[in-house]
Amino acid sequence: MPHPTLIIGNKNYSSWSLRPWILLKHFQVPFEEKRVALFTETTDAELKPYNSDLKVPVLQDGNLLIWDSLAILEYISEQYLDNRGWPDDPAARATARSVSAEMHSSFPNVRGEFPMNCRKQFDNIQPSREAEREIRRIKALWRECREQFGSGGEWLFGDYTIADAMYAPIALRLAGYSLPLEGIERDYVESVLKQPAIIEWIAAGKAEVEIIEEDEI
Ligand SMILES: N[C@@H](CCC(=O)N[C@@H](CS)C(=O)NCC(=O)O)C(=O)O
C-alpha cells in the first residue's frame, strides 16, 4: 500500500502542520510529505484539490482526504498506531482528549501574540493580560497531566500521546519567546526541545526562505 501523504505549510510558521507531522515522526509511521508555502500567489491553487478550505494540514490516504489537525491525529492513531495515540487508561485518555480539544479550540491570545517562528529567538515581549491568563492555564494543565498521569515517562501522560503533539508548538513558543518557565513545565519544554523530530523540524524551518510578514512580530 502506498504511504499516506501529509500536506503541510511552511515549517517555520505552520504550527497546525507540526502537530500531525510530529506524531507520525515520533512513531516512525512512514509517510510522504508535501510542503505548500502559505500566502503566496500559488498557494490557493495548490491547496484547492484538498477540500480543506485552503488550509493545512491535510492527510491524503489513498482517495481519502482528512483535514483539520485533530481529526488527522485521531485518524493516524486509529489507522497506523493501533490506538497508541491515546493513553490506555480510560481516565488518562479522557483527560488527554480534554486537554487536546482545549488546545484545538482555545488560547487565541497566545496564538495571536506569539506566532510560531522557528527562525527567531525573541526577548522582552510582554504578553497581554489575556495571553498571560492563557499561559497560566496551559502550564496548570501540563502540571496536572504530569502529576496525575505522567510518572511512567517524560511526556504529559508518561508515554508520548496526541496531547504532546497538540502542545508541541506551544512549547516552542514558550521557549522561542523566552517566557518564564520553572519546575515541571520547564522540564516538559526541555523534553520537547530535545526530541529528535522537533530538532529536525526546527532545522528545516530555519532553512526556509519565505517570509510571512504578519507572523514576524
Ligand atoms: N483548525 C485548523 C487550523 C488550520 C489552519 O488555520 N492552518 C493555517 C496554517 S498553520 C493555514 O492553513 N492558514 C492558511 C490560511 O488561513 O489561508 C486545524 O486544526 O487544522
Automatic annotation (TrEMBL):
The keyword Transferase applies. InterPro entries: Glutathione-S-Trfase_C_sf, Glutathione_S-Trfase, Glutathione_S-Trfase_N, Thioredoxin-like_sf. One of its GO terms (biological process) is glutathione metabolic process. Residues 4-84 form the GST N-terminal domain. Keywords: Transferase. GO terms for molecular function: glutathione transferase activity; maleylacetoacetate isomerase activity. This is Glutathione S-transferase. It comes from Candidatus Sedimenticola endophacoides.
